[in-house]
Amino acid sequence: MNQAVAVGADAGHPGSLEVRSLSVRFGGVVALDGVTLDVAAGRIVGIIGPNGAGKTTLFNVVCGLVNPTAGEVAYNGRRINGIRPHELNRMGISRTLQGLGLWRALTVIENVMVGARRGSSPGFASAILGLPRSDRYEKALKAEVMEQLRELGIEDCANRYPVTLPYGVQKWVALARALISRPALLLLDEPASGLSLNEQKQLIALLRSLRDRMSIALVEHRLDLVMTVCEHVHVLDFGRLIASGSPDAVQHNKAVTDAYLGTELTDEGAAHQAKTD
User: Which end of the chain, C or N, has fewer beta carbons within 10 A?
Assistant: First the structure.
């Protein structure tokens, strides 16, 4: 881990993320170009933009899957450039993927157990030897997972295999796996994709309920959902940050309108807000 650096107004607060002058190049392709943005502690922040804008690349840099060409990423005031993906869990960072990433051969409860904080595990040797400490840990973890599934309303699916479940339920399983580690920062990559309107309403209610427990950054193409649930929105276009601000300010930003949103967003978002309030 690199030496800590204090960056931004929320440096040191649990769940804060700061990105400074971040650039990523794949050969001659510029995926991110000097992007600077924040996810303040305890806030729900949207990251939007057209396909190819660099949104998922940004998440991949934060999670250590892509090395930046230039710039810094700081989490809770500590520079985390070069973090290894397996370190995210113990640091309190959790992420969902565009794809579900569920294991077909594991039941729902087993899939979610995989996401638990590794620091509390009794270790491989204890598990392989069947020691009492390992048994107690597994029993306690299963109870915790069941409580998480219950919170999402899918406890009845605990012993089923994901492939036997509707897509919307599989999305909840993936979210449960991310939440079971009790993250301080939750990164959601297109959480509403494939969800019905009713499931989207449930997602909005869930995100609002999680706000007191963690910071949330979400990449999402459902702009009505973003404008309804997010308190701050960052807009990327061709790898560059073209706007940041409140949902209302972003909706009426001409650069954003020209690049992406169009004029329908205000009406669509207002309609969705009316349905979800």
Answer: C
**Which tokens is 251 given?**
């909706």
CATH number at residue 230: 3.40.50.300
CA–CA gap between residue 227 and residue 200 (Å, rounded): 13
**Helix residue ranges per DSSP H, 74-152:** 88-91, 108-113, 124-128, 132-151
- As to burial, measured by CB atoms within 10 angstroms (0-12 exposed, 13-18 middle, 19+ buried), residue 257 is middle
Query: Residue-wise pLDDT tens for the chain (277 aa)?
Result: 333 333 333 444 578 999 999 999 998 899 999 999 999 999 999 999 988 899 999 999 999 999 999 999 999 999 999 889 889 988 999 999 887 889 999 999 999 998 887 555 555 444 444 545 667 778 888 999 999 999 999 999 999 999 999 999 999 999 999 999 999 999 999 999 989 999 999 999 999 999 889 999 999 988 899 999 999 999 999 999 999 999 999 988 888 888 765 544 444 444 444 344 3
If asked whether residues 229 and 255 sit together in one domain, one would say yes
- Can you read off the two tokens belonging to residue 118? 């590794």
Strand-pair category, 17-26 with 70-75: antiparallel
- Say whether both 173 and 195 belong to one domain: no
Residue whose pair of structure tokens reads 């710039």 in the numeric block = 71
Apex CA 146: angle with CA 60 and CA 115, to 5°?
Answer: 20
* Residues facing residue 29 across a β-bridge: 26
Contact 107, 62 (CB under 8 A): no
- For the chain, the C-alpha Rg in angstroms (whole number) is 19
pTM of the model: 0.82
Q: Under a CB-based contact definition with an 8 Å cutoff, are residues 169 and 111 in contact?
A: no
In angstroms, rounded to a whole number, what is the distance separating the alpha carbons of residues 1 and 19? 17
Q: Looking at the 3D structure of the chain, how many domains does it have?
A: 2
